[in-house]
Amino acid sequence: MDKKTYARFADAHAPHSPILKNCILAFLIGGIICTLGEGLGTLYTELLHLEKETAGTLTSVSLILLSVVLTALGIYDRIAKHAGAGTLVPITGFANAVSSPAIDSHSEGLVLGVGAKIFTVSGPVILYGVLAGAVYGTVLWFLGLFGI
Question: What is the per-residue pLDDT across 126-148, written as a single tens digit (0 to 9) for each?
Fold first, then answer.
């Protein structure tokens, strides 16, 4: 079987993804996560009378904690199965990406399990984020030298 024939065969037998449904679910679940964050922020500022910056920090910490707890209970993965990219809202998705490998590898010990594997998913994101920031900062610095 040549490559073209195999590609047609594979396409014919591969399950088709319901793109519109997936987009709507991602939008809704991502919106729910963001609404939860806004609700927590409002709760912290209005009911607890915290300053906006403090409430924002507490909101972030709350979302991270909730994400890690849901990951540990296996609930986050079930939500992500239906919501797809909607669960990648930056802070909750990143918390899941860090905690999931740590939880999965805890039986291997703290050093060779958790310590070695905690950043397997999020490590490249951190690496290239820092690298992009350094390149961007260097470019801005050079532009500043020339008064641009």
Answer: 888 899 999 999 999 999 988 87
Residue 109 region by backbone torsions, left for phi larger than 0, else alpha for psi between -120 and 50, else beta: left
Q: How far apart are CA 96 and CA 89, in angstroms?
A: 10
- CA–CA dist 127, 2 (Å, integer): 40
Cα separation of 61 and 78, whole Å?
Answer: 22
**pTM score, whole prediction:** 0.72
Q: What share of the chain is helix, strand, coil (3-state, %, to 5)?
A: 85, 0, 15
pLDDT in tens, 83-104: 888 888 778 888 888 888 888 8
- Taken in order 28, 31, 37, 42, the sign of the CA dihedral is negative
E strand or H helix at 39, and its extent? Answer: helix 19-42
Q: What is the pLDDT of residue 125?
A: 79
Structure tokens at 140: 């801005």
CA 60-102-131 angle, 5° bins: 65
